[in-house]
Amino acid sequence: MRRVELTAIGIVAAAGLAAGCASNSGPKSRSDIVMTPPACEDFAVEIYFESQSSALTSEARSVLKNAGAMAKGCQVNSVRVLGLADAVGAADANLALSKTRASVVTGALAKVGFRNVEIDVAAAGDSGSLTGSGESRPLRRRADVKIDLNGPQR
């Protein structure tokens, strides 16, 4: 008798679960799906490079691809790219390297969706790359990208 009661309870519980799964509260057609408009909020990303290099890493490509996705469907007011370098090497070489980094990032931005956008490109070289005590800041091996958005595209 005890076994019959447990089996009956198991059947009732299974039926309840099945009924819960059957009642799908999701959209029944494509027209029921509500698309949330993009946030279109300004954002910034930093693209890091290896020492004395202007080649994009796989992580940098991923960051740029995500930036393109974040701006998709938005009006782009402006994009600013600033190339930077650390204090290793001669100042003129670091300025040239930071210009190349900014240029490489600008080209990559075009590939991820910023084709018809005017991009303000600048380079700072190694300016500001030393701490007050004279230590080099290795995290200056980067390009800073600032993207200003203004609502969904029309």
Helical content stands at 25-40%
Structural class: alpha+beta
Distance between the termini: 71 Å
Uncertain stretches of 5 or more adjacent residues: none
Overall CATH class of the largest domain: Alpha Beta
Which CATH architecture of the largest domain? 2-Layer Sandwich
Q: What's the oligomerization state?
A: single chain
Task: Explain this structure.
By secondary structure, the protein is an alpha+beta fold. It folds into two domains: 2-32; 43-152, 2-Layer Sandwich (60s Ribosomal Protein L30, Chain: A), CATH 3.30.1330. Helices cover 36% and strands 23% of the residues. The chain contains three helices and four strands. Strand 2, helix 3 (91-111) and strand 3 form a beta-alpha-beta unit.
What secondary-structure arrangement, pairings included, does this model have?
Blueprint: H1 2-22, E1 43-48, H2 58-71, E2 74-84, H3 91-111, E3 119-125, E4 142-152
Short recap of the structure:
This protein is 36% helix and 23% strand. It is an alpha+beta fold and 154 residues long. The chain folds into 2 domains: 2-32; 43-152, OmpA-like domain (60s Ribosomal Protein L30, Chain: A, 2-Layer Sandwich), CATH 3.30.1330.
Task: Quickly list its features.
154 residues; alpha+beta; 60s Ribosomal Protein L30, Chain: A; 2 domains; 4-stranded mixed sheet; 3 helices
